[in-house]
Each structure stands twice: as structure tokens, then as C-alpha cells.
Amino acid sequence: MIVVGGEALIDLVPVAQPPGALVPRPGGGPYNTALALGRLGAEAAFCSRVSADGFGESLLAGLRAAGVDLSLVQRGPEPTTLAVPSIAPDGSAAYGFYVEGTADRLFTLPGVLPAGTRALALGTCSLTLEPGASAYEALLRRESGRGLLTLLDPNIRPALIADPAAYRARFLGWLPYVSVLKLSEEDARWLGGRVSDWLAAGPSAVVLTRGAQGLAVRTREGAEYEVPARRVTVADTIGAGDTVNAALLHRLSDLSAGEPVDWPGVLSYAAHAAALTCTRAGAEPPYAAELSG
């Protein structure tokens, strides 16, 4: 099983008609990652705190339909976090957030993860907003210590980071507990570090998403691979990076201990899945059957 920890929220996505209208869609980086894992056929569980309001019910319904285990989900009466993306002409998105007093911020450290858990993924708002951020950080440290494959996607949202210097220092403190660091070129620029330094701190690989330029990976042993992006008509890029997370986890968590990683194959699979997500408005990851061709 692959456990994904982090927020579930509602994206209020702009649509062309009527002018100025916003359509609510399920979202949140970890939520999208869990949804994508379920659709890709992986055994996945979502670990979060979700509101008991109508939005929260719809979020869980989406995961349930994808076959995602919800036994680790905590519930609360507080409202669901809202995100308002602004879509640029190239399909990229910037976000504003409504996070005060919302349910997902009050996440607490869960007990033992389900038997058979092979991997843990964390990232985005959940590692920024307290008090839940400290609980997710404790989960990362605990499960890394048990030998789980861990994936971190910082997925930087500057609007939520009050003290960038403190966040950057905290990010460096996570790296000894991370197996795979996945981030976008924009994230890397904002963090201001070097891939070589991040690899020296702990991860066995750093995967970089580069938009229309595709995906790249650099490993601790010094190997480097790149794959191009698939050419598609882009509706928007919401959820594309989260789909990459899911594709990476799906392929990497199936490997036996010591088995070499076919990085070109893994990256090509992730690029294909992300491209399909980009053809759809909002975060709509593909199903396994769509990647079989």
C-alpha cells in the first residue's frame, strides 16, 4: 500500500462561461496524488483531516470511487480549505487560498500505518500550515525510520509561507528522511538550493518537472536522465505534478530491495500520465487503461 498524507481542498476553477464564474473541483496536491494512484490501479490510502461539510463529503466520494482506502482519514466540523487558481494563457496556474480555521490544518499524528504499507508521500500546504505541519513532519520522520520509501513534493505556494527563510531551513531538515525529492523548476528556483546539495543531504534521487520540456532525474550515484513531454492540447496544468507523483510512486514502490530503477521508463510513464491530466480542466488524472497504448 502507498499512503499519501496531506490536504484535501476545493479548487474554485475559472471557466469561460458565464464570465467570472468559478466551478468547484476537488483538489489539493496530496488529494490529487491519492486519486491518481487509485485510478492507476495502485493500492493507496489517504491520510488527512477532512471536513464533515458538503465539500468534504464530495472529496471523500471522489477518492472512494477511485478505490482509495479512507481508514486513515480524520474528520472535523471545521470548513474545507478553498483555493482559487488563476489560469495563465499557457495553462499554468497560480493560487490564492482561504485556509483560516479549516479542517485539514488540525491533522494529528496517526497510529501505526496499515500492514503492508510500502511508501509514504507528503507535500504542499500540509507541510506549511500549523499545527498540522508538525504532525506530518513527525509522520515523515517516523516512517522513514521504519524503512519506507518516502516521496516529498514541496509544491511551493508562496502565498502561504509567511517566513521564507524559516521554510527553506525546515525543508533542508526534511531531506535526511526523504527517498525521492520531486519538485518543479519553479520550486527549485524559489528554494534556491542545488540538486547536488539536496542529494548529499539524503534523497537517493531528485526528479525535476520542467513543464513543456519534460522530466529529468539525477541520482545520488551521479546518473542523469531526461524524457521529453508529450505534445498535447493543454486545458490547464492543474494536477499534472501530482499525477507525476503518483506515477513515480506506482512504479518505484513495486521494486524489490536493491532492484535497479529503469529511470527512463519510469519518467516516460510519468510524462504520459501528466500529459493526459493537462488535457482536462481541473485535476483529472488518467486511468490505467488510458496509459496502456
How does this structure look, described?
With 293 residues, the chain is an alpha/beta fold. It has helices at 29-39, 54-65, 132-145, 164-174, 185-191, 195-201, 240-252, 263-278; strands spanning 2-5, 9-14, 22-27, 44-47, 49-51, 74-76, 82-87, 93-98, 119-123, 149-153, 180-184, 205-209, 215-219, 224-227. Helix 1 (29-39) crosses helix 7 and helix 7 packs antiparallel against helix 8 (263-278). The relative contact order is 0.15.
Classify the secondary structure makeup into a structural class. Answer: alpha/beta
Multimeric state: single chain
How far apart are the termini? 26 Å
- The global form is globular
- Radius of gyration, rounded? 17 Å
Mean pLDDT: 92
Strand content: 15-25%
